[in-house]
C-alpha cells in the first residue's frame, strides 16, 4: 500500500488536537506569518473554484477546517479545491501516492453520557439523566493532487463566478443596509452609532484593497446585538477586543476567498501580539474564533443574491451525501 495509517499505541495518552493546532498557529504567528491568509491571484479569482470541498460529497470545508486546509499551501497551489480521506479514495479505486502526507480535518459530534453531577442535568430530568458532550474527531484528508486516479476537475462555467469582482463587497453592503460614511484616515465600525467609517476611495491602492477593508469592517458590523450579538464592548488592547479582531480577521479572509479578493489588510504588530496572548491563554480559542468567523461569513455572503443562490443550489445537490468530509 502507498499509505499507512498509524494507530495510537495501546495505553498511550490521546492526542490533544486543540493544543496541537493552537501550537501550530502560534508558531506561524511568531514566525511572522498570518497562516490563514492566502496569496491573491487575479487569474484564479476570475474563474477558478477557491473554497476547499470534499471530492466525494461536494460539501465545503468550513470553520476550523477551512483554516487548517488553507494553512497547508495545497489550496493555493493550483485551481483544484477537492480533498478526500484515504477511505474515500479506496472506495473509488483511487490511490494515495506513496510518501504523501495528509492534513487533519475535524468534525464535532455530540455524545450523550450519563450526567453524574449532583443536582445538575442537561435534560432537566433530575440527577442521573443524560447530557450532551461535544467530541472532536480528527480525520486525515488528502488534496486531489496527492491521489492517483482522481478525475480531472471540470472547469466551472462563467455564470458560477459572477460575484468575483470588487463590486461584490458593495453588493453585500447595499443588501445589508449598513450605514457607510467616508472621510478621515481610519477604517472602523462604531457600535455606538452603528455605522462603518471608511477613508475616501482614492486613499486605497486599488478597488480590491478598498473592498477587502470594507469586508473587514462589515465583519465587525455583524456583531451588533440585533445581528449576531458578539461582545463588541472591549477597548483596544483588551482581551475582548483581541477576540473580536481575530474573528473579523478570519471572517474577512473567508469571505475574500469566496469573492476572489485579497485579504492582506495591514495589521499593526500589536494586533498579532494580542492574538498570541489570546491563543496562548486558551487552546480552544482558535476553534471558537474560526466557528464564529464562519458564521460571520455566512451571514454577510447571504446578502449577495447570486452567491446565496449558488450556496442554496449546492445544498440541494449534496443532500444525502454522507461519510467523512
Automatic annotation (TrEMBL):
It comes from the Bacteria. Residues 16-142 form the N-terminal domain. Pfam families: ArdcN, MPTase-PolyVal. InterPro entries: Antirestriction_ArdC, ArdC_N, MPTase-PolyVal. Residues 167-291 form the Polyvalent protein metallopeptidase domain. This is DUF1738 domain-containing protein. It comes from Plastoroseomonas hellenica.
